Amino acid sequence: MRQRLGRLGFYLLVAVILIYAVFPFYYAIVTSLKTGTDLFRVDYFPFSLSWENYASLFQHQPFARNILNSIAVAVAVVALSLLLGVTAAFALGRIHFRGRGLLLFTILSVSMFPQVAVLSGMFELIRALDIYNNLLALVFSYMIFTLPFTVWVLTTFMRDLPVELEEAAIMDGASPWVIVTRVFMPLMWPALVATGLLAFIQAWNEFLFALTFTLTEEQRTVPVAIALLSGGSQYELPWGNIMAASVTVTAPVVGLVLIFQRRIVSGLTAGALKG
Amino acid sequence: MAAYEGPTLRQRRVRAAALFLAPMLAVLLAVAGWPLLRTLWFALTDANLAQISGAEFIGLENFLVEVQGKWYGLLADPMWWNAVWNTVYFALVSVTIETVLGMVIALVLNAAFRGRGVLRAAVLIPWAIPTIVSAKMWGWMMHDQYGILNHALMGLGIIAEPLAWTADPDLAMTAVIIADVWKTTPFMALLILAALQLLPSDCYEAARVDGVHPVKVFLRITLPLIRPALVVAVIFRLLDALRMFDLVYVLTPNNEATSMMSVFARQYLVDFQDVGYGSAAATATFFLIAILTIVAIMVGRLRQEVER
Questions:
Q1: Do the domain assignments include residue A203?
Q2: A130 φψ region: left (φ > 0), alpha (ψ -120 to 50), beta (else)
Q3: How far is CA A262 from CA A193, A271, B49, in A?
Q4: Which residues of A, range 112-171, sit inside 8 Å of B by Cβ?
Q5: Is B79-252 CATH 1.10.3720.10?
Q6: Which one of A19, A32, A155, B17 is least enclosed by Cβ atoms within 10 Å?
Q7: How far, in Å, CA of B60 to CA of B116, rounded?
Q8: Same-domain pairing of A6 and A121
Q9: pTM of the model as a whole
Q10: Average pLDDT by consecutive 10-residue portion of chain B (308 residues)?
Q11: Are residues A127 and A16 in the same domain?
Q12: Chain B residues with CB inside 8 Å of A208's CB?
């Protein structure tokens, strides 16, 4: 009896966690399918199924452009970070040299320090490079968090690769460049996918730089577009549109995360636990 | 691999390391080192946004200056200290709640039951949602007139009339913490879960055979074993919470009760165009977080050594 009660309590807890995690997103979907006065009635289940909010996003706002901006910036940032990160991670993970620990610690601190601390210096630099209100400004500034993160996670992965492989390659006279590109890269694919995805999500979600370094609607990324979405009147926010936009940009990310769950979890924990 | 690693090979490898690291370090210097130095410099000038480079050195006047017997500057600014206090309070409360909730979720996910995969996938959803989106979602659920939160709480008879979650100065911080906890607990849960899964199962077997109460097992065995991982996770989250910007900016805009250090600094930099004062606030934020980090790491080490 007691065991049965315990089991019941456990499944109750599971249900509570499940609802807590999923409900806000579910409610955003329900809201996004409502229009007009329906929006102001609280419904726990979707009674109306209208795609009007979604349609209006793409007709009255440059939302498609915003999505393309976000994708372009995130892809460029991830590609650059991985490119610079793999070779750096090889140096940090497999070659012993003086000051390596200090260097790793510095890289980790850069990924943790507050973005606002570089805001004015970055602003000046972006103006000097004449890339204000340009997506290049975002690609440039996002490197501050994606690059150290990528280097750190890839270094922890590099460290765990078997040493015999490298020894064999050295015996065959392979140069470090050949070792990285021919021996390690094929083994690193899972790690590269995980790290790339995490960096992509970071860039996709970034707000402070995107808000500060862009001006016009056409240059905005998705988070800024959603934050600044305004309706017909100044006083009432277009909640239906906002929720439709939220669902549109979240659904693919949630999909990616669910597909790559295991890889993502391993990347996240490698980044945090092996320090 | 000492046997064949002659000095030439070693030298070659170290040279390769330098070559491999150079591009990455150059980029980091350009995007982090240089802007940080410039910010520190701007903090000592009267720069404004229109003429950012033609600024003049004014010493520490942005931080503290006496004019006719009165003190001005960041360190004498009650709004700054309000932002500092808000940030520290927010970081401590939300990270504490996240740690406890994250622990509960991790313990549940660590148990073997049907539907575990589904639950783990569901828990990842808040983590994957952009902060801006979660701010908007919670803003809508906490809407004073049409929000589902007020509707549900009134239906359950917990509150008598609708609450203005995001506008009421007494509630705004609670609203921010609720939204932040929802978004960041999954990260905590996943890190704790990863630590739990590395634990050796034999001491649990022994405890079970001896009939030790599960709560005692948790406090005496589990908690001490996952402590190092827990400390790392808490420090990560604290650092993240101390630089909080986006959630507050969107969920409770222009609300003094939830003004945070990053929000304060950006407001001066961009809205008031006062780059000097804004940079002073950014500099103070940077050093405050750096000092707290060092203290946290040292306290962690000290406690480890004391316990040994």
A1: yes
A2: left
A3: 11, 14, 46
A4: 112-125, 127, 140-141, 143-144, 147-148, 151, 163, 166-167, 170-171
A5: yes
A6: A19
A7: 57
A8: no
A9: 0.90
A10: 60 86 94 94 89 82 88 90 95 95 93 87 90 93 90 90 89 95 93 87 78 84 86 87 93 90 93 92 93 80 69
A11: no
A12: 245-246, 262, 266
